[in-house]
Design a protein that fits this description.
Length: 65
């Protein structure tokens, strides 16, 4: 299944520099960067490019959760 492949790839990426910049902001707590990256890559793989459609798929489809 592609979702497991994306999960494994993103978990093995070295994104420390991006994480430092992403988490250094003040404000409310944000979603984990790896989770967002997995969601965007899986949506892109399934030809879902709209944020609204991605959100809808996240609610309806267990593979997006």
């Amino acid at each position: 299944m592609p979702v497991y492949f994306i999960n494994q790839i993103v978990d093995n990426l070295d994104i420390r520099n991006v994480m430092d910049a992403y988490l250094s902001r003040d404000g409310t707590s944000s979603y984990h960067l790896r989770m967002i990256l997995k969601l965007v890559l899986y949506a892109d793989l399934n030809n879902v490019y709209s944020c609204y459609k991605t959100e809808k798929k996240n609610i309806e489809n267990i593979y997006y959760m």
